[in-house]
Design brief:
By secondary structure, the protein is α/β, with parallel strands linked by helices. Helices cover 24% and strands 27% of the residues. A 6-stranded antiparallel beta barrel has the order 12-15-14-13-16-17. A 5-stranded parallel beta sheet has the order 3-2-1-4-7, sandwiched between helices. Strands 9-8-11-10 form a 4-stranded mixed beta sheet, with no helix packed on it. A hairpin with a 7-residue loop joins strand 13 and strand 14.
């Protein structure tokens, strides 16, 4: 009897989803110098992966060195390098300053000048980290790229899926809605399953990382002390031209010091007190240099137009879809109906009115009763449905 060959052994799938040993799996880790991405890099190296750390230089270090809370300052590059040295993997710093200025900073300034309230961190993920850096990772023959974002990637029945983080207080799905399916196939988020930031810091201490107690960054990296207007004035001289504060009927109530100093829903700092009920910023009109104010009730809206829609559902976005949406990063998802309009546009109807819906912010879609991110879009000019 002729002996039969032994059945081929199927390679075990590693923690990153590849059917090969960790040592044969190259992963590029996007390292900001903070505790989150440092723990990702250290943990993957400890598991035996072929780790390559990459940190992006996104803006001038002369300004950055004086600002410890920013995500890509000179000190942060130094911190990322120290983690790589301690754990024993290569680390590279890439000069993306021109790309960042063109793709993120200029867009930020122009959006504010147009009366919108932009979210530059989303644009940075979309146009720099998950586009240009991801291509660099491919050039380095990486099997995948890992980041320190708090969000989960799961292998679904049909495709890789994006899900909210286990820790709702740290969930960053709002800032990652524009991740494309192709990018999601290549990305990994090792921290998404952790229940708290304390677990991340405990891991950093376990690995002996100097960044274990490093504070989280609070501001947009290129906006010192949260002073958006000062940055925009520097980028676009003359942007802070004064103008009129008017009510919904166009009646002049006062003067303002520049449209860029105001946001939708703002109440304080208008300088027009003593007019009865509190007034809120309802709309910004940069062409007329007007800030339109009115009662809080006028902020309520149920119809939210969105553009540049990115859809991550299993089926094409066709017809009306019941879902949950989040219109600000600090607000919980709310029930809504999503209607595609073609050309990357859609209309979202909120089942309960929301206040302070602002052009330039993101509107992120989630599955009803679940954690899956279905995509999202950018809020365009607000329309209010009459009661």
């Amino acid at each position: 009897m002729t002996p039969q060959p032994a059945p081929a052994q199927t390679a075990a799938v590693n923690s990153l989803g590849f059917a090969k040993p960790p040592a044969e799996t190259r992963v590029v880790v996007a390292m900001s110098g903070g505790v989150d991405s440092s723990v990702v890099a250290a943990s993957l190296k400890t598991e035996g992966y072929d780790v390559v750390g990459v940190t992006l230089q996104l803006y001038d270090h002369g300004a950055a060195l004086a600002k410890k809370g920013a995500c890509c300052a000179g000190q942060d590059i130094h911190d990322a390098r120290r983690v790589a040295q301690r754990m024993g993997f290569p680390h590279y710093v890439l000069d993306y300053e021109n790309r960042f200025r063109e793709s993120v900073i200029d867009d930020f300034a122009d959006a504010y000048l147009a009366g919108a309230t932009p979210v530059p961190c989303i644009r940075c993920n979309e146009r720099v980290k998950f586009r240009d850096l991801l291509e660099t990772a491919r050039d380095l023959d990486a099997d995948c790229m890992a980041t320190g974002h708090y969000i989960r990637r799961r292998d679904g029945a049909q495709r890789a899926e994006l899900h909210m983080a286990a820790d709702s207080a740290r969930d960053q799905s709002y800032f990652l809605f524009s991740t494309t399916q192709e990018q999601l196939d290549f990305l990994r988020f090792p921290l998404g399953h952790l229940e708290s930031k304390a677990e991340t810091r405990a891991l950093a201490a376990q690995y002996g990382l100097a960044v274990a107690d490093k504070p989280d960054s609070q501001d947009i990296c290129f906006v010192p002390n949260g002073d958006y207007a000062a940055v925009i004035e520097k980028l676009r001289p003359g942007a802070a031209d004064p103008g009129e504060i008017v009510d919904q009927d166009g009646q002049v109530l006062g003067r303002h010091r520049g449209v860029i100093h105001y946001t939708i829903g703002q109440r304080r700092g208008l300088g027009i007190g003593g007019l009865g009920d509190p007034l809120y910023v309802l709309r910004l009109d940069p062409e007329r240099r007007q800030v339109v104010v009115g009662p809080k009730s006028a902020l309520a809206t149920t119809i939210v137009p969105v553009s540049e829609v990115n859809w991550l559902g299993d089926q094409p976005l066709e017809g009306e879809v019941s879902c949950m949406v989040r219109i600000r990063s600090t607000r919980p998802p709310r029930a809504a109906l999503l209607r595609p309009l073609g050309g990357g546009r859609a209309e979202v109807e909120l089942l309960e009115a929301e206040e302070g819906v602002s052009p330039g912010q993101a509107c992120v879609f989630y599955e009803s009763g679940g954690t899956r991110v279905l995509g999202g879009g950018w809020i365009s000019l607000r329309r209010r449905r009459a009661a």
